[in-house]
Structure formats: structure tokens, C-alpha cells
Design goal:
Urease, subunit C, domain 1, five-stranded mixed sheet, binds zinc ion, four-stranded parallel sheet, Amidohydro-rel, alpha/beta, Metallo-dep_Hydrolase, TIM Barrel
Length: 367
């Protein structure tokens, strides 16, 4: 628990540039421009009257004292029983809460560029890392990279104290076939290409891979074998391959959950991504707790395949559900704000015909 609390202390209270600094034995020297982000970095610090949520599921505890020495938690407990060491800088955090740093399992660095075609998804290397930190996220997995060299350089700069950002675990470029959603993406030719791509990007520093919607079963099998040979894992946002087939090919993790599993569509062609609306229609009448969906869950459990929840993404597809938060709009470039608001309006206009209220409910039941 002590370790778990540390990242957030670094990110929200002590120094919002990098959790890794706090965990590292030797802290990197911070670039001068990063000093502006550091609120407190006294070697001995006592946070008093703070509410603690420790991330174990335990109830929040009020009026706690938290003592941090050289970036590590030295003691934590009730105000009455926790001694403030001599020489500590005391920071009264009445009304504030300390939580563990959040670990983002599916956090990209790109955003669609307005205009096109061709569709472009540029890296937002300055804003994304800071926005993740501002949201309390101190570690991320990029879960499919469009500019993998940019992600890797960003990671190095953050690790070296040159840039503000969370600890980054770089996923290699999307393992995708023809039909990629962005011009920047490589489109795999065959299983050998998948193997070579995985091996190349492991050598560059990628620590996980993500298969995408138009990958073939042969390519996925080859990618999994190449990644597993070096102790790395493969996740997928799949469409051409159903969950059970992906599990049998050795995939470790599946992004997004039930609503992207196409295996329930009768007559689905092997290795081809069907029309998503048709796949959704086939899924909707099925029960989660019985029949084919339940069988699929049991197959995933038997092979220890994890699911990455992305409910906040799906929530935006449900007409008029996700609140429109002014702070979100403030963080966007004007062009991004326009396209976001336009998309919200389109979803809202299509409310009468939308399958998403029912799909979202089914996804909640599944998770
Ligand atoms: Zn994604």
C-alpha cells in the first residue's frame, strides 16, 4: 500500500512531472522548465489533515498524517497517533484527498487531425502527457502506437526529467492489415511481416503489442509467438477474429470488451471483419449469463485472457449520456473542440435509432 500511494504523491502533491523520479534510487536532474510544475520537494514532508483512499477498496480515512522522506512514504496514520518528525515541512491539506497514481491501460498519444482524407492522427506529445498527469494518471500503456518512435522518445525524455509526463510503457505500432484507420499505419502483408514487425519493435524498446481489426489469424499467431518468445504480451482490439479464436491463438488481453466481439454473428467469414452494425445486432438478443456469451467468458478465463475496460470511451457513444465538462473543452485546441462537439451532436441527433444505450448496458453486465 505504501508503494501504491507514492506515485500520486509525486504527481499531485510533490512534483507532477514523473512518478518514476520518486521510485528511482537516483532521481534525474530536472530540466529548469520543469521546476514550474513542482509544488513541494522538501526532503522531509508531512501532509496533514488529508483524506486517504488507499486503492485497496478500504473506506476512505479522514484526518490522516502522511510523512514523506526523500520521496518515499515514511509513515501514515491518524493525526493523533502519527508523529511529525522534527524538521519536516508541514503542508496542511485539509479538504484534499490523496489517492494512488492511476495506471492507464489504454492511453494513446494521438488525436485525429481535422480535415482529410487521408485520415491523419498526429502525436500530441506536449499536451497528452500533461493531461494524463493532471487527471491523476501516473503510468500508462500506449496500447497501439501510430508514431512509435515519438512515443519512445517521449518516454526517454520523461524518464530523464526533461519533460513532464507519466511513466510510459510503449506498445508497438498497431498490428493491422489492409483497411488501417490512419495513413501513418503500416499494413501487414503476411505472417512473416507480423513476426518481423514485432521483433523489430521489441529491439527499438516496445514492451507490448496490439493486434487490430483487420489482422488475419495467421498474422496474429505469428505476432503472439514472436512476442511471447521474448516474454512480452499481445493485446487486441479485434474484429476479423473472435475472442475465442484469439484466445486459442495465444492472445493475452482483449481491449474494449464484449461489444467488439464479432464471433456471435451467424455466418461470419473467418479472418474477415464483418459490418459492425450487423455484429451488434447479433449480439444484442444474447444473454450475458448464459449461452454463447457465457461459454466465451469461460474460454477466456480458462486461458487467463484479460479484458481491458474502456467504458468511458463507449459512454461517449451513448446519446446524451456523458456529461459535457467545461474543463474538457478548455483543454482542447479550437479545431478539436469543434470536431468533438460536432460528433456529440451527431450522436445525439441519431438517438432514436442508436443501438448504444442497449449495447452499453450489455457491456456493463459483461464487465
Ligand atoms: Zn485504442
Amino acid at each position: 500500500m505504501r508503494k501504491g500511494l507514492l506515485p500520486v504523491l509525486c504527481s499531485l502533491v510533490l512534483a507532477p512531472w514523473s512518478a518514476s523520479r520518486c521510485r528511482a534510487q537516483a532521481a534525474p536532474k530536472l530540466a529548469p522548465e520543469l521546476r514550474a510544475f513542482v509544488k513541494e520537494d522538501a526532503p522531509l514532508l508531512a501532509l496533514t489533515h488529508v483524506r486517504i483512499i488507499d486503492g485497496t477498496g478500504a473506506a476512505p480515512r479522514g484526518d490522516q498524517t502522511l510523512v514523506i522522506q526523500e520521496g518515499r512514504i515514511a509513515s501514515l496514520g491518524d493525526r493523533t497517533s502519527t508523529k511529525i518528525p522534527e524538521g519536516a515541512k508541514v503542508v496542511d491539506l485539509s479538504g484534499r484527498t490523496v489517492i494512488p497514481g492511476l495506471v492507464g491501460m489504454h492511453d494513446h498519444m494521438y488525436y485525429p487531425s481535422p480535415g482529410g482524407p487521408p485520415p491523419l492522427y498526429p502525436e500530441h506529445a506536449a499536451s497528452f502527457p500533461r493531461l494524463y498527469l493532471a487527471g491523476g494518471v501516473t503510468s500508462i500503456r500506449t496500447t497501439g502506437s501510430i508514431e512509435p518512435y515519438a512515443d519512445l522518445e517521449l518516454k526517454h525524455d520523461i524518464d530523464d526529467g526533461k519533460m513532464a509526463g507519466p511513466k510510459i510503457h510503449v506498445t508497438g505500432p498497431y498490428l493491422e492489415g489492409p483497411g488501417a484507420f490512419a495513413l501513418e499505419m503500416h499494413q501487414l502483408k503476411d505472417a512473416e511481416d507480423a513476426r518481423r514487425t514485432v521483433e523489430f519493435w521489441i529491439a527499438q524498446g516496445a514492451t507490448s503489442f496490439k493486434a487490430y481489426q483487420n489482422i488475419t489469424p495467421e498474422e496474429l499467431g505469428a505476432a503472439v509467438e514472436a512476442a511471447h518468445a521474448q516474454g512480452l504480451k499481445v493485446t487486441g482490439h479485434l474484429c476479423s477474429i473472435g475472442f475465442r479464436e484469439a484466445a486459442s491463438l495465444g492472445i493475452d488481453d482483449l481491449e474494449h470488451g464484449l461489444v467488439v466481439d464479432t464471433e456471435f454473428l451467424p455466418g461470419k467469414k473467418p479472418g474477415l471483419c464483418p459490418n459492425p452494425a450487423e455484429a451488434d445486432k447479433a449480439l444484442l438478443p444474447l444473454e450475458v449469463a448464459s449461452g454463447p456469451i457465457h461459454d466465451m467468458i469461460r474460454a477466456l478465463v480458462a486461458r487467463h485472457v484479460a479484458i481491458t475496460s474502456t467504458l468511458p470511451v463507449f459512454e461517449t457513444l451513448v446519446p446524451n449520456r456523458a456529461p459535457l465538462d467545461g474543463r474538457v473543452l478548455d483543454a482542447m485546441l479550437p479545431e478539436a473542440r469543434i470536431s468533438y462537439l460536432r460528433r456529440r451532436a451527431l450522436i445525439s441527433d441519431g438517438a432514436a435509432k442508436s443501438d448504444w444505450p442497449a449495447l452499453f448496458k450489455k457491456e456493463l453486465e459483461f464487465e
